[in-house]
Design a protein that fits this description.
The complex is a heterodimer of chains A (285) and B (248).
Chain A (H helix, E strand, L loop, with lengths): L3 E11 L5 E11 L3 E5 L6 H8 L7 E6 L2 E2 L4 H10 E4 L12 H11 L4 H14 L15 H13 L5 E5 L7 H16 L3 E5 L3 H7 L2 E6 L2 E6 L1 H4 L3 H7 L4 H11 L14 H17 L1
Parallel strand pairs in A: 3-8, 3-9, 6-7, 7-8
Antiparallel strand pairs in A: 1-2, 1-4, 4-5, 9-10
Chain B lengths: L1 H8 L7 H17 L3 H18 L4 H23 L1 E3 L6 E3 L4 H27 L2 H10 L4 H30 L6 H32 L16 H21 L2
Antiparallel strand pairs in B: 1-2
Helix pairs in contact in B: 2-3, 2-5, 2-9, 3-5, 4-5, 6-7, 7-8
The chains are: A alpha/beta (285), B mainly alpha (248).
């Protein structure tokens, strides 16, 4: 079970209105990893996600799941969509049903599972996103963040191997972002491949194992965040670099080399810990 | 919104929708079985009492929900009272209908009142998703029920969109004068049409992503003591019907 779980091979896509969204875009997503997809608005992130789930079909090139090209027949799509779960950005445009439990059951019911199994999966999914207590509430009485979590539960209930989220943090306050990060961390720990589109460089730097940077429908960079996000061309297209990385680099210019647990600090808390440790060492010597 | 609130927070929320449906249906049958206006009025009172003291819906809220329907009932009752006397030599409007006519009008009004109370009982105690799943079990066509589900959900999404647009328009003085208001209203409608189109596309994509093949299938909510509740509802409902039949 090695090799990328999802792969785009020079995929091109053009919307009916003439917008060229992807142009000969090639990239790979590694199994079991946390992948962040970055890019300016209109860079093709959402279009790429719709390809991963088989909703859009490339005009040229191909998409591969587990090494073999996607099967666009009805049965093939059914199988793919049970393995690749896609959560869209706006929760109001993906919740159909009036009550939380009903909505979450939509996916597993479509998989044709029997009722007892659906019921069990729905409860598990609601528990995983911390919404079990709101199961009987009507959807329109939930807050924005709660709706987002219901959307994620709706996809989790289908038990996908890969979870694809389009800007899950957009519109959430800091506390809710933290909660959602914890949920995602739990899913990753259980072995799920998680792909996230985001504009938050600091989050991508701290969270991802692998980043994909898109620019005008093409792949600009793909690799470890510490390398990719410090590149000049990437900095130019994304309009900045992660703060933690920048501070670490600036400190090294004045001769302070920071290491947290043997690697460069990736989050604010790791950075502070490394600075404190360094200060402790210097006061001792 | 008032109906929503009651449906989700009344004392009989967890009672199976089938039981509530049967009781409500019995109420309507009784309304038609009632021979005199007084009996129909009694049926209306029983159904109202069931909603208010049984399901614990506050009286004031009940009246506010019933008010529009009551207004229509009053208006149509009054219009029945005024009959045009075309046959007589002096063409005119008569405000004093004959005795049997008056009785018929009273019967129609009281019967409508009883039916209204029976329907309000169902809508105020049962959330719409439960009513839809009940109708699904009654083998109503899927297309109709899917439409109901989507309409119900989009009602809230659209009302929010309307609210947001109006706020945004007002913030830029969109409703300052009558002429500007008209233009803003036009803008609102145009914008909503586009939004409806875009949202329907988004819903379609989201459904595809969750393996939909067209039909909307959901899990039904479990309810307590279903068979016992149904038995109780059927028994008390039959009692109401029997009462309506026995009384003159």
């Amino acid at each position: 079970m090695t090799g990328p779980i999802l792969k785009l091979e020079s995929v091109s896509y053009c919307y009916p209105d003439g917008t060229r969204a992807l142009e000969s875009c090639s990239l790979a997503v590694q199994r079991g990893q946390r992948t962040a997809v970055l890019g300016a608005n209109g860079a093709g992130k959402t279009t790429m996600f719709l390809h991963l789930n088989g909703i859009l079909r490339p005009l040229a090139g191909q998409v591969c799941w587990d090494g073999s090209p996607l099967d666009y027949s009805r049965g093939g799509m059914r199988q793919l969509r049970s393995k690749v779960g896609l959560v869209f950005q706006n929760p109001d445009s993906q919740l159909f049903s009036a009550s939380v439990r009903e909505d979450v059951s939509f996916g597993p019911m479509n998989l044709g599972l029997d009722e007892a199994l659906v019921r069990q999966r729905v409860e598990e999914a609601l528990l995983a996103v911390g919404m079990a207590e709101s199961a009987d509430k009507p959807v329109h009485n939930l807050s924005y963040g709660q709706k987002k979590r219901v959307c994620i539960a709706g996809v989790l209930a289908m038990q996908p191997e890969t979870l694809v989220l389009d800007e899950p943090m957009a519109g959430l306050d800091a506390a809710m972002q933290e909660e959602l990060t914890a949920v995602l961390e739990g899913l990753h720990a259980s072995g799920m491949t998680v792909i996230i589109a985001t504009h938050d460089l600091d989050f991508a730097y701290g969270w991802a194992d692998d980043v994909i940077v898109l620019q005008s429908g093409r792949l600009l960079a793909n690799g470890a965040p510490a390398e990719v996000l410090m590149r000049d061309d990437v900095r130019k297209t994304l309009g900045g670099t992660p703060l933690v990385a920048e501070i670490t680099a600036s400190l090294s210019l004045i001769g302070v080399e920071l290491r947290a647990n043997g690697y460069l600090p990736r989050s604010k808390s790791e950075l502070l810990k490394a600075i404190n440790a360094q200060a402790g060492r210097e006061s001792k010597s | 919104m008032l109906i929503e609130q009651s449906a989700y927070s009344n004392r009989w929320r967890q009672v199976s929708p089938a039981a509530k449906g049967i009781f409500s249906l019995c109420g309507m049958v009784a309304a038609f079985a009632a021979a005199s206006p007084g009996t129909a009025l009694l049926v209306a009172l029983i159904m109202t009492a069931a909603s208010i003291s049984g399901a614990g819906i506050p009286l004031l809220r009940y009246l506010r929900v019933a008010a529009p329907a009551l207004f229509f009932l009053l208006a149509s009752g009054l219009s029945l009272l005024i009959s045009l006397d075309l046959g007589a030599s002096t063409l005119g409007v008569s405000l004093h209908p004959a005795e049997p006519e008056l009785l018929r009008i009273a019967r129609v009004c009281c019967r409508s009142l009883a039916c209204l109370a029976a329907l309000l009982f169902l809508t105020l105690t049962t959330p719409l998703p439960d009513i839809i799943s009940l109708l699904r079990r009654c083998k109503l066509p899927d297309t109709l029920l899917d439409l109901m589900t989507l309409c119900y959900r989009t009602l809230f999404v659209l009302s929010e969109a309307i609210h947001e647009t109006i706020t945004a328009q007002s913030a830029r003085l969109g409703y300052a004068t009558f002429a500007i208001s008209l233009r803003s209203m036009g803008g609102l409608v145009g914008n909503l049409i586009v939004q409806v189109w875009q949202r329907s596309q988004a819903l379609h994509l989201a459904a595809l992503a969750r393996n939909s093949d067209g039909a909307l299938r959901f899990l039904e909510n479990p309810h307590d003591n279903t068979s016992r509740n149904i038995f109780l509802a059927a028994a008390s409902g039959s009692l109401v019907v029997a009462l309506a039949l026995i009384l003159p």
